[in-house]
Amino acid sequence: MKTITYLFIAIAFSWLSTSANAEIYAFDFKGQCMTSEFDNFIPRHEADSWAQTAFPEYRELGEKARMAKFNVQVAYDFFLQEYNWRSIDNLDTDILLFANYAGTRGDDCDSFNAYFWQNEVSAAEISILAGYPDAPTGIGHDLDVVGHEFGHGIYAAGSGGDGHLAGRALNDSVADMVGVTVRAWFESGKSFENTVVRANTFESGKHFMTNMRMAGYNVDVDFLRDIANPTRHGGISHTEDLEAYMLYVRSQNLEADHYEVGGITSLAYALMVKGGQHPVKGGDSLEPMGFKTSFSILMYVIKNKLPFNDNEDFASALSYAASNMYGAQSTEHLGTVAAFNAVGVRVAPIMPPAIPTEPPVPDVSLPTPDLDQEPSVPAPDVSVPTSMPTDTSEPSIPQSTVSALSLNGPMVLMMLGGVVVLLSMTVILLSGKRNKEVQAHMKDADVPLGVGLDTILQDNRKVEKTPSVPEPTPSVVKTHKIAIESLRLEINGYAKTVELQNSCVELGRTALAEVAQDLSERLADDPYISRRHARVDYYDTQQEVKITCLSENGLTINGIHELGVDEKARISIKRPVDITLGKTKITVSKV
Amino acid sequence: MKYSVSNKMLLVALMILGVAMVVGGMTWKMSGSATVAGGDVSMEAQEKSGGQQNPSSSDSSKQSTEPPGDLELSPVGSLPVSSDTSVVDDESAAQVLEESKSDMGLGQDDSLPILSHSDDGYGHVFYHTQQYYKGIPVYGTEMVLNTQNSQASEVIGTWLTSIELDVVPTLGAEEALIAAYRSQGVPESRQVVMTTDPTALVVYPTENRVVLAWIINGRLSDPRTEDYRHIVNAHEGEMILKLDLVHQ
Q1: Which CATH code is given to the segment(s) A22-141?
Q2: Nearest Cα residue to A427 out of B10, B210, B68, B199
Q3: What is the Cα–Cα distance from B228 to A329, expressed in whole angstroms?
Q4: Residue B188's domain spans which residues?
Q5: In CATH terms, is domain A486-590 a member of 2.60.200.20?
Q6: Which residue does chain B place closest to A127, by CA atoms?
Q7: What's the domain count of chain B?
Q8: Residue B49 falls within a domain, yes or no?
Q9: What is the mean pLDDT of residues A32-59?
Q10: A568 at the B interface (CB within 8 A)?
Q11: Residues A111, A102 contacting (CB under 8 angstroms)
Q12: Which residue has the higher pLDDT, A36 or A257?
């Protein structure tokens, strides 16, 4: 009896497990140009039941559609087997696969594309287009391309942003990570333990490019993307660094491309997996963490919906995940941080956010800033990972971070107004007090009444000098000049402490060579950097630096504030300061 | 005496100017404002100066899908949370978040419902939430409440404080979408087709203000365009953002 009961339970469990699995409904449109978009006729809330009987004439799959379905199934199996993640959203959502057709999303019938549909229908939609009709294999043969589209669904299940350039870039970046990982896993026998990096592991879209070449497109590489070296596929050569890329985009009056931007974080992932150096910049050689560890860190972020809106958020979220999973300062944690640092993405600590009770303070101010109002948040340190879980035993008081977003129009107007009122009142009060003092002195000094304010002040100065009190000897020591000072400079991941001469250091192709030849070599490849490009004066007591632009090419501070030639700015050095010369970022920090 | 009077007058004039600026700023702020909890300037603000297409050109159907009204959210931040409440389920997590609202700079009009939760397998349970303002979701504000051993430790995410916004839309969704296209110069001869679902009302943070916005899927006819997801100002019928519906 007991055996029968167990058997019954096992069958029931098995049935439940089976019924919980999502279905993949595939349709082969035989290379047709589809004039209607699927979105218009799929019943939004009954897509899954609709799919059971829809398009009977297109349910028989040819080779191209069959392979596309097979690869969707591989991606599905990967997430289920390795992460117990059910379908694209972990909710067993059915998948509709529209394969082997030409879409009319643009002016022409486009056969060379693949989509993940961002619709709120009750089934996920993936389109794998036909490619070139006479090609022996289709786009669906590319497991990494199919995995990429599947990956868009994975991204959507997390909490990453998508409504802006950075978010869309990250969306494609994560999709690329999924694509190459699923293929590597499959090629290694569907075992994460044994998944290895091969020579072409990070190259995706080989069949895709073969189709394009056969169709007569001028294709100079045989892969769509290489996330281990985004510059190889003929894209803009600045993709290794977001700031450099954006500088290039602005200089060329282009629109930023989210695939190019996404290449930055994809490269960081490739470095996590395989280790090694940045393919363009060089720098430190990283230790490989392998696919399983690297992808598990990513999945932690997705599964737990850690929010991120830009590259730094994303890096911080992965660093946070690695810290939670493997421990703070663990090899995996440090490796994650190092990989993002290598591609120019600083891993900021997940810091306390701004509370609107304190007025925001701009990062760069020409007048000396009020140091008391500097936010006391921990400074991000590019060399030591700081994005760690908060220790609950010591809940700290929320700190205010510098929020330039708080400096919106109304706030700026109100702040300026407040400053003007305060200044005016201060001057009036001081002058009133001064007048009283002057009048007191006038009584003693017998100054005639009725003279103007300026005259009184001049006379007052005379009056003040009248007593025979010895004048204090003016100090000739400039408080910010001390004998030996140094700053830490980091260029493309290479950092060095530089001794200052007269509290300053000049940056530029020849200027820096006089101080540190090895650092200077990091600037050699950047034609936009002048021989003497910038000067950094260090004010130790104020904990500030003054940055002077010496070049017609200008510079940018912290990616925001642009200085033209001969313009100066003072900024707190309590946290590292990024100075971008040409397309090279130099991070200046205290030693 | 002459200088004395002019100096005083100057100071008084400055004071009046300052007061006027404060009042002006407050009035501006009242028209739809918020403070974003978080950190630094995003790159998007810089991108806009770098070659985005002009939204006032004659036909928006050929325009970039990244118009100037890009989403503005600050970097993700973390706020330590201290509560005597043990977090054992969604309800207690919601209670802790409710208690934390004032520390987060949120007010009575803001709510943080628990949408789901996850156990990371390493001793943390994350409760997922999003900011709602007067019952309307605030676009892009996702947060997690991190708990360890049933004790809440921090809220991680981005949220907006001091939102002041009329959340009753002046325009219906379709009306707003049509107005948005017409204001961009799309002629009457081209139909604006709304593809019903999903249509949602959201609070949307842009560069220097928050707006009440419809999220509407739709397209243009003659010639027919692709379907886009539009984010349109629900009061003014202004196109804020046009997003591609597919990821390629």
Answers
A1: 3.10.170
A2: B10
A3: 45
A4: 55-66+166-244
A5: yes
A6: B248
A7: 2
A8: no
A9: 78
A10: no
A11: yes
A12: A257
CATH number, residue B205 = 3.10.450
A481 touches chain B (CB under 8 A): no
How far apart are the CA of B66 and the nearest CA of chain A, in angstroms? 7
The pLDDT of residue A348: 67
Report residue A440 as tokens: 């007191």
How many whole angstroms separate alpha carbon B147 and alpha carbon A61?
49
Q: Smallest CA–CA separation between A310 and chain B, in Å?
A: 7
Instruction: Pick B161's closest partner by Cβ from A254, A356, A391.
Output: A356
Has residue B4 got a pLDDT over 50?
no
A116 touches chain B (CB under 8 A): yes
**Which residue type, as a one-letter code, is found at position B8?**
K
What is A142-347's CATH superfamily?
Neutral Protease Domain 2 (1.10.390.10)
Kindly provide the ipTM of the predicted complex, given to two decimals: 0.74
- Confidence band for A431, pLDDT divided at 50, 70 and 90: low
Mean pLDDT of A571-579: 83
- The Cα–Cα gap between A243 and B3 comes to 52
Helix axes A165-187, A63-83, angle to 10 degrees: 90
Residue B75: which pLDDT band, with cuts at 50, 70 and 90? confident
Of residues A166, A172, A353, nearest to B38 (C-beta): A353
The residue to which tokens 């959203």 are assigned: A89
Interface mutation target, options A125, A245, A320, A408, chain B, most CBs of B under 10 Å: A408
- Count of Cβ atoms closer than 10 Å to residue A98 Cβ: 25
What is the residue-averaged pLDDT of chain A?
74
Chain A interface mutation, best of B78, B149, B195, highest count of A Cβ atoms under 10 Å: B78
**CB–CB contacts below 8 A, A to B:** 313
Residue A366 and residue A46: Cα distance in Å, rounded?
61
With 90 as the cut, is the pLDDT of residue A182 above it?
yes
Domain ranges for chain A, please list them: 22-141, 142-347, 486-590
Is B218 inside any structural domain? yes
pLDDT of residue A574: 79
Q: What pLDDT, on the 0 to 100 scale, is given for residue A38?
A: 62
pLDDT of residue A366: 32
Quick one: closest CA in A to B102, which residue?
A355
What are the tens digits of pLDDT across the range B120-179?
A: 999 999 999 999 999 999 998 999 999 999 999 999 999 998 899 999 999 999 999 999
